[in-house]
Amino acid sequence: MIPVELLREQFGAHVTLREKRPGVTQLIVPLFHEDGDMMDIFLDADPGGSAKVRVCDHGLTRMRLSYTFDIDTPNKERIYQRILTENRVADADGELFIETTPDELYLTLLQFSQAVSKVCNMRYFRREVLASLFDELLAEFIESELSRFHPQRSVLPIADRDELEVDWEFRPNGVPFHLFAVRDANRARLATISCLEFQRHRLKFKSLAVHEDMDKLARKDRNRLTNACDKQFTSLKEFQENAVRYFERELVH
Q: CA distances (Å), 187 to each of 111, 134, 166, 212, in order?
């Protein structure tokens, strides 16, 4: 099934194949995790009988990661899927794999090992890196699901006050709705200041705050924003579930 001589030539003879069961071969090759353990890589024959080879991990990469890190939030899942996409790796119920041909096996193995390494290293991601997708996920939802409410990004309600930039503006009924994406205390304070300044300038508007996680804000920051803002969504998930109905109610006003 596998041209062993070709692999040994490309890996400098440091390669061994162990048949685990008919059609499934474990590859013993110098590709290592950072702690020195050898990567678990298998070569499965195509059950359809074609010349293709399936380079896979039989689910051991996700199992290894689960000892120290859970992919338990939409942001983590998004990063995980991005790693796989960038390396052309697929996931079948937790098993990572690439289908290739014997002639391309060497490059495929290097590509596959790179993806395995990146997935295992997700446990080192800082919270700030994981949270950074909040704005991107919010933008994707707005552009795909709220386009009929005329969203506009990065708006300056007061032309000469660029420090009071609004993340998104909607006009469901002619009145501008200013949306602030709030993922931390600094964003909450800026939204509070912006709303108060717009009110002081007697602008006609409604204000919305979409939180990444409202519970993570200190009580004083929550209270100040609540007093200044017309409507808040405590999480991105809540906004995704209720935003359309919220703007539809505004259409009749």
A: 39, 13, 11, 11
